[in-house]
């Protein structure tokens, strides 16, 4: 099978890069949660401080109510210091969020690049082993037109029902695709399934972007 032979290095690199991407996503989400929590705590403390000041202003009969500076309790001063400390922590967390976001975007790009290269090299290997681009194209999709004409497999008593294919109902191209797929599935079903899944994932993520690591030489860099 390709991913255990010629494509082992690239397949391993893709797995490693996806693992790094997952770690970056988790770190980013954790930081965003921390950032939100800090903002909430700061807002709560500010509201509490404002209430303390209002109460102090109302109860202070020895000073002019118009004065901005009013006596504050030790508890209120402690809250003010806590706000200052949380603001400093929030700034540091925000800086971390920006840095990890850049790493996350890079990791996503590395994963996409690695996957695209794996698809290209698998295409070349598949063509070489099974006989050319026409076969590879036939293998990259389920034969939808064939499926419509022969019906889909059902299940009876937990056992799959294999549809009977009337080859006379297929046009020449469909007939050839069907026979090629049957041959490939018989010779190397694992590679056939792997190829179809790989192409499906490549189409799904095409155009996306992914601080990452590529474990294999020539595939990427470790961050």
Can you give a write-up of this model?
This protein has 223 residues and is mainly alpha-helical. It has one domain. It has 6 helices and 2 strands. It has helices at 8-59, 74-130, 133-140, 144-150, 172-187, 189-205, and strands spanning 154-156, 159-161. Strands 1-2 form a two-stranded antiparallel sheet. A hairpin with a 2-residue loop joins strand 1 (154-156) and strand 2 (159-161). Helix 2 (74-130) packs across helix 3. The chain is rod-shaped, with a radius of gyration of 31 Å. This is Kinesin-like protein KIF6/9 C-terminal domain-containing protein.
Helical residue percent band: over 70%
Q: How much of the polypeptide forms β-strand, as a percent range?
A: under 5%
Strand elements, count: 2
* Major β-sheet profile: 2 strands, antiparallel
Outline, from the CA principal axes? rod-shaped
What is the quaternary state of this protein? single chain
Radius of gyration: 31 Å
Counting DSSP H or I runs of 4 or more residues, the number of helices is: 6
Low-confidence stretches: 139-163, 211-223
Query: Order of strands across the biggest sheet?
Result: 1-2
Number of domains: 1
Mean pLDDT rating: 73
Q: What would you call the structural class?
A: mainly alpha
Keywords: Coiled coil
Protein name: Kinesin-like protein KIF6/9 C-terminal domain-containing protein
InterPro entries: KIF6/9_C
